[in-house]
Amino acid sequence: MDEAYLQDLFDTLSDLKIRRLFGGQGIYCGDRIVALVVGGVLHLKSDAESEPLYETAGLARWTYTRPGRVPTRMPYYRFPESALDDPEEAAQWTEIADAASRRAAAAPKPRSRRVRRALTDKASA
Predict the structure, then answer these.
(1) CATH assignment of 3-124?
(2) Where does the TfoX N-terminal domain start and stop, copy by copy (predicted)?
């Protein structure tokens, strides 16, 4: 997707950055990912709080499929077609995705299996 177009679409974000990601583009506000473009399709970040808003609007969830594997539902929903040409609607959806991104960044990160195993082994000793 054209980078200048994405910058215009997400102009309400401060510290907007667009980087290459998954053969597409990641749209960031600072270090937080807010949206991504995969296969030419723009998707917005979601979480448990924003998911009902996306689903009520009838937006499709991005599912990542790899050969021989079960499809993985990713926390991103397709950007609404109607918002692509409507700056006010685009700003509303951008705010929803940005809020989901802020919540994700503030959430405690789960420990990896390796760290949990090391802690379990220490406790057993």
Answers:
(1) 3.30.1460.30
(2) 8-97
